[in-house]
Specification:
The complex is a heterodimer of chains A (199) and B (183). Chain A is an alpha/beta fold. Chain A has a single domain, classed as 3-Layer(aba) Sandwich (Rossmann fold), CATH 3.40.50. Chain A is 42% helix and 18% strand. Chain A has a six-stranded parallel β-sheet with strand order 2-1-3-4-8-7, with helices on both faces. A two-stranded antiparallel ribbon of chain A has the order 5-6. In chain A, a hairpin with a 5-residue loop joins strand 5 and strand 6. Chain B has a single domain, classed as Rossmann fold (3-Layer(aba) Sandwich), CATH 3.40.50. In chain B, 45% of the residues lie in helices and 19% in strands. In chain B, helix 1 packs across helix 2, helix 1 runs parallel beside helix 7 and helix 3 packs parallel to helix 5. The radius of gyration of chain B is 17 Å and the shape is globular. The chains are: A alpha/beta (199), B alpha/beta (183). The interface between A and B is large, with 42 and 37 residues. The complex binds thiamine diphosphate and magnesium ion.
């Protein structure tokens, strides 16, 4: 049986190349390493815990920053744990939120145990069923280009599930201090004064 | 008529600039949910689980907004890892209003264990817990809780006691007893 063709690092590099000023939240696991290795910036928020909360965090941020795009890049295991959030997002319809699931069909970070997507669970179909208006299953380089277009021109919200090989992410370690990551992100988005002296 | 504590809470949300209110419904929150829904300046977000609220509120803060969460006491159980892992690790502000079940005059025995666990669970997570049982105490605790959360990056839960909201049940109070077959 042949697995997916796409390599996670290449997909991430291609998508982040057209990131513009999008804010990016990475779900815990391999996506954290992917994001750090591809485009480390203050406008990245790396989740080192809180499994299942990446999408809801993206939603909160997207509603607060309605003029900027917010991308959530996460894994299949993380997305499955918070899968109800697809319904919550569908109801709010933020026109600036994109969720990109790098689906390696495994819990990569904890030793490559298979997830339900290995046996056919379809996260894009689950998102569609939840009411997300645009969903995509990305399995080829041409699909990645279509996703890049959709991220640039919309319509959002969208959920894209990218089938990737179960290869390890590039080992680039972003900061793990949560207070630092939070303050750095807020300063970049809100400016130092508003970030540090909220009213 | 709308509860007094609801009117005060809504006024305080406005005064403190709360833009987003995430909730999973509880009978005791009905008035407050309806009041927030009716306000065009407040975005209400009905969630599939209270855990989402922790992500929602943290994400809102990253984007410069203040969010408040409303939930029933049983919902506190759904928030535990998210509070520990996200709120505590990053010192995010957190403000939640929890309507209590399993306390004063509870008629559903399944509510009692989680209702009893709420305070020790929240305290073990470092959440500041304000328990209130009167309209006046509720408004005061909510005002001070909002300040403490958003000025001092604290996690605060205001627990609205069953003595204040009553032991409401929409169906059980009027239901007939089932016929016990083969017992
Ligand atoms: C609540 C909770 N359960 C389990 C874990 C352990 N854990 C950390 S990362 C991870 C796997 C994540 O898998 P996925 O989202 O598919 O990311 P991948 O590493 O495969 O890209 C697990 C199970 C955790 N951190 N938190
Ligand atoms: Mg995975």
């Amino acid at each position: 049986m042949s697995g997916p063709d796409l390599v996670r690092g290449n997909v991430i590099d291609r998508l982040l190349q057209d990131r513009g000023d999008a804010l990016v939240i990475a779900g815990l696991g391999s996506p954290v390493w992917d994001l750090a290795s591809s485009d480390h910036r203050p406008e990245n928020f790396y989740l080192w815990g809180g499994m299942g909360c990446a999408v809801s965090m993206g939603l909160g941020c997207a509603l607060a920053q309605s003029k900027r795009k917010v991308w959530v890049i996460t894994g299949d295991g993380e997305a499955l744990m918070g899968v109800g959030s697809f319904a919550t997002v569908a109801l709010q319809r933020p026109s600036n939120l994109a969720v990109i699931v790098l689906d390696n069909e495994h819990y990569g970070e904890t030793g490559m145990q298979p997830t339900a997507t290995r046996q056919g669970t379809d996260l894009a179909a689950m998102a569609l069923g939840a009411g997300i208006p645009t969903t995509m299953m990305v399995t080829s380089e041409a699909d990645v280009e279509r996703l890049a277009d959709a991220l640039a021109t919309g319509p959002l919200p969208l959920v894209a599930v990218v089938k990737v090989q179960s290869s390890k992410p590039r080992p680039v370690l972003p900061p793990r201090d949560g207070v630092y990551l939070k303050n750095r992100f807020r300063q970049a988005v809100l400016g130092a004064t508003n970030a540090m002296q909220p009213r | 008529m709308t509860d007094l504590w609801t009117v005060e809470t809504h006024r305080l949300f406005k005064e403190h600039g709360v833009k987003t209110v995430g909730y999973v419904p509880d009978a005791g929150l009905t008035d407050l949910i309806n009041t927030c829904e009716a306000d065009n300046d407040i975005r209400t977000v009905v969630m599939t689980t209270e855990e989402e609220g922790i992500g929602l509120a943290a994400g809102a803060w990253l984007g410069g907004d203040k969010a408040a969460l409303l939930m029933q006491s049983s919902g506190v159980g759904n928030t535990v890892n998210a509070i520990a892992s996200i709120v505590s690790s990053c010192q995010f502000p957190l403000f939640m209003i929890v309507t209590m079940r399993g306390q004063y005059g509870e008629s559903n025995p399944w509510q009692i264990p989680m209702g009893t666990a709420v305070v020790p669970v929240l305290k073990s997570l470092g959440v500041h817990v304000f328990e209130v049982e009167t309209e006046r105490d509720a408004a005061e605790a909510i005002e001070n809780g909002l300040k403490m959360a958003f000025v001092s990056n604290a996690a605060v839960a205001v627990l609205i006691g069953q003595r204040l909201i009553g032991a409401k049940s929409f169906i059980a109070d009027v239901a007939e007893e089932v016929n016990h077959v083969g017992a």
